[in-house]
Give the backbone structure.
Amino acid sequence: MTNPELQRGSDWLAQGGLRPTRQRLALATLLVGDGQNRHVTAESLFEASRQSNERVSLATVYNTLRAFCQAGIMREITVDGTKSYFDTCTADHPHFFWEDSLQLTDAPAEQLEIARLPEAPDGAEVASVDVVIRLRRV
């Protein structure tokens, strides 16, 4: 990892008010070091960390991704209630879920129109709306 990549990872952690431990910094650098947004699973980030010779357990990857979400620097997107993806882009936007490859990608937000949402029950408010469009290749 180069110094600019490490700096991006460190700056990203600072945005969330997170202390830059060795493991957090290693994972943050893998996620945002090149300046690109990512959609990852805990397993895919764990594999990327292994390939970059970082010593991070799978449990630590899960815990760190949860901490990143709680700090507001990542979003968790759940597909089918069983598989979680983590997105470094926290702005509201829709996703495509590719059923054949199990990949999550951004969908064009400018093409999405939601005319109206149901009213939240008394004592509740809408926190967010996640749109996941499932795709099957033909």
User: Anything to note?
Assistant: DSSP finds four helices and six strands in the chain.
